[in-house]
Amino acid sequence: MILTSGTISYLGSNTAIYILATVAFVGAIKILKTWDFNSTTNLQYSNEKLSFLVSTIIYFLLLIKIILSFYLLYLIDSLVPFIKAAMCGVGVINATDFGWWLLALKIVLLILFGLWITTNTKDIEETNYPFLKFKFVFFIIIFVFLSIELFLDFYTITGLDTQRIVSCCSVTFSNTNQIGNFISLSRDSVGTLYGVIFSIYVVFGLLSLYKEKFSTYFSLVSIVMIYAGLLVLIYTFSPYIYELPTHTCPFCIIQKEYNYIGYIFYISLIFGCFFGIKSGFSYAFLKKFNKQDIVLSLVLNIIFLGAGLFFVINYYLTNGVCL
Amino acid sequence: MIRLENVYKIYETTTKEHTALDDITLHIKEGECVLLRGHSGSGKSTLLSIIAGILKPSAGYLEVDNVRLSKVPDNFSTNFRRDHIGNIFQKYNLIEDLSVFENVITPLLPTDLSFTEATNMTIQAMQTANILHKKDNLAKNLSGGEQQRCAIARAIVNKPKIILADEPSANLDYDLTMQFIEEMDKLKKLNKTIIIASHDDVLFKSNLFSKVVMLDKGKISDIN
């Protein structure tokens, strides 16, 4: 285990938040068991007060979790010097058993947190708590994921093997590696695949602006866009950012040497896709449609694509060739 | 206009419970002027606070101006109070270092009204409460009666349908109490629903009220 101020504060914050989440979980169960909006009994009024408290706790802890998720990227990067042969965060994650699963879970949870906050915002806009049961059942599902996440957080951070000689990012994400073989696509093919998915995404985005019902499809394509975006970032854009054809890595781009440009990519991609998912979620479950979500999603994903293309075009203009 | 059905309010501490309101059922029509009468601790102020949406009942149902106030979340009852209810407090609760005008306009600041609209409404309220001539004086330099009129102007500035007053004459002598009754009579003619909690005999003997509700130990003992 590597004890640094970063790992201690990360695990400490997550534990404190999990304790708060447990309090909210117990409150949510209690409310769900006895909720009857039309009742005017003492129990119901207590439930209404408690629901406000529980919602506030959940809202607060989810906002902190969103910040902590991005902090984890920074933390992983700060642990590089402790791992043998690690050049960036990829090496650190390779020194764990479930590090990649933890990162995937973080992305899923980020989306779920955002959707819960959306539901809560809609619920408190109304006077009759129309989505109260839905949002607390939703939170119970999130709580299950939070439990798994806390276990993985501790298992990953405390289980970091400083003696294990790890592969660096270029090996991990090369075409001869397992992950590279998993997609079985060349750099150009990944770019083409992303281009196709992006086009479908834009078409559904524009259709959603015209007719609300398309927002459901738009949100489904947005889910695919997260995966496609990560692939294109790693296999197509990153060599142009590093200006090295063999260097394909999702982590080096968040280092100082590359001006922390990775954060722009990750924030625009994840939030862009989140707003796309949110639009369909709101339409299907909350009976609310917001064009701003679609526009925001499109703008953020265009920023993601634009940032990636900037490096490609810049490389081409400087060197006269593509990688 | 105001409907309370089987309302209870129980204050709980770690060691004991105190029932401030015990099964209150009361209907008040629009434009009625009601006096809540009773000794100290009989539940008058608690009842006013519940009608104002400041407190939630422990059990029972409250409807004010067709809004189920006992069921709405706190953020809505705050907005409802801002838009529909004017409060006059026993100690007036004026901000001493602000002028009369500034005190009266304060409830309009968190609204969407423009400053010109808010100013016009403030002047109108000060005229109705007969305090316009003191608009630039600081609240701390006003006499008791003037402070009372300033508090009335502040309570009516948002043009509420309902005016609630808690022991408004507690700090007033007989003459000022009679002035207060005159001010309330003016508001009554504007079809405002007025509810005053007081144990002052001067108020009780006035002909301002269409209904007198006697409270005793949290229960309604009599309605005239």
In words, what does this structure look like?
The complex is a heterodimer of chains A (323) and B (224). Chain A is mainly alpha-helical and 323 residues long. Chain A has 11 helices and no strands. In chain A, helix 4 packs antiparallel against helix 5 and helix 9 (214-242) packs antiparallel against helix 10. The two termini of chain A are 40 Å apart. Chain B has 224 residues and is an alpha/beta fold. Chain B contains 7 helices and 9 strands. In chain B, strands 5-6-7-3-8-9 form a 6-stranded mixed beta sheet, with helices on both faces. The radius of gyration of chain B is 17 Å and the shape is globular.
Question: Tags for this entry?
Answer:
heterodimer; A: 323 residues; mainly alpha; 0% strand; B: 224 residues; alpha/beta; six-stranded mixed sheet; three-stranded antiparallel sheet; 7 helices; 33% helix; 26% strand; globular
Topology:
The complex is a heterodimer of chains A (323) and B (224).
Chain A: H1 5-34, H2 42-78, H3 89-94, H4 99-125, H5 132-158, H6 169-172, H7 178-183, H8 187-210, H9 214-242, H10 261-285, H11 291-319
Helix pairs in contact in A: 1-2, 1-5, 2-4, 4-5, 4-10, 8-9, 8-11, 9-10, 9-11, 10-11
Chain B: E1 2-12, E2 17-28, E3 33-37, H1 44-52, E4 59-64, H2 74-84, E5 85-88, H3 100-105, H4 115-128, H5 144-156, E6 162-166, H6 174-189, E7 193-197, H7 201-205, E8 211-216, E9 219-223
Parallel strand pairs in B: 3-7, 3-8, 5-6, 6-7
Antiparallel strand pairs in B: 1-2, 1-4, 8-9
